[in-house]
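Interim report, section 4.2 (structural modelling).
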Amino acid sequence: MSGGGVETAGDLAPEAREGLRRLVIALADAKRLMGLRYSDWLLGAPSIETGIAASSMAQDEWGHARLLYAMLKSFDMDPVRVEHERASDEYCSPDALDRPFGDWADVVAGGVVIDGAISTCLRSFAAGSYEPARSRVPKMLAEEEFHWDMAGAWYHRLANASDEARARLRDSTLEMLPSTLAWMAPDDAAAKVLSDAGLADAPGAIRSSFEAVVGPVVAELEIDLSTAESRSEGWDESRGRGPGGPDDEAIERARGDRNRMLFVE
Amino acid sequence: MHEAVYEVFARKERGEPLRHIGYVDAMDDALARVYAWKTYDEERWFEMCVVPRSSIIPVNRTDGPFAAAALRGGGQ
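Predicted structure of the assembly:
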């Protein structure tokens, strides 16, 4: 897929540049919201070790978000404004992160489905021709391996636990899948431009990659990813997601509103 | 769900001895790996390993702190 390598977004044609800008913001916002949702489980996780792991994963996600937001400088965007001043309906994060995880089954399903989808996108991005991604994303993916191990191990545990645990995990997974599939592999012009320019895989290839990794995990609950539908009603092509956005509390936390007057950059 | 104790060992440099740095409770080996890496992340470890406490075999005495814990059946 990759050729000579694209050193800066300024080297791209306008359509490809816009598609890349959308991808970078989508990944950065996904990381920020994923971290925020993990952070809720420092307390309340099934064990101290699990809570510590969730907290550490939250820190990883926020670190990744910061690196991805910094890439926006190449698009003549101000990362500080993007991080601290946008409204909910400007966020490009997966729809399934718009609300807090309700229980531990949600966290585990989110780790497999949503974090799995984010990493799938990142792998595609890192394998593309955009040099900043090729150099910065592999370290993120290395850290994500532990997130995946944690989510996969917990998924296996709950899938082989009580009927209630299985049912809750299955419900969470099925609830998250349709919108996350649409976010991860958008069937729209912006995604096609990206793949045509060699900046990321085509949506079909991204979906196949996701199925290869996540499929065997969710198959424990008789969920067949190859037939899972991607939900795209109300699709917002400018953001690469469905309508709406994260809840107000999440946005206030993500932006740091409460202590905004103390902000130092 | 049952949890076992895993001892955590690590070294910062290739030539450094592997040393005991702590323990984690985990339901299985996969989670023990994650918990150890995420709990003892204050250093940039060159190598980290986890060992089920129940797998420790005393050599010279059974009343040492390490061996005694292992002989209690993996408890703390």
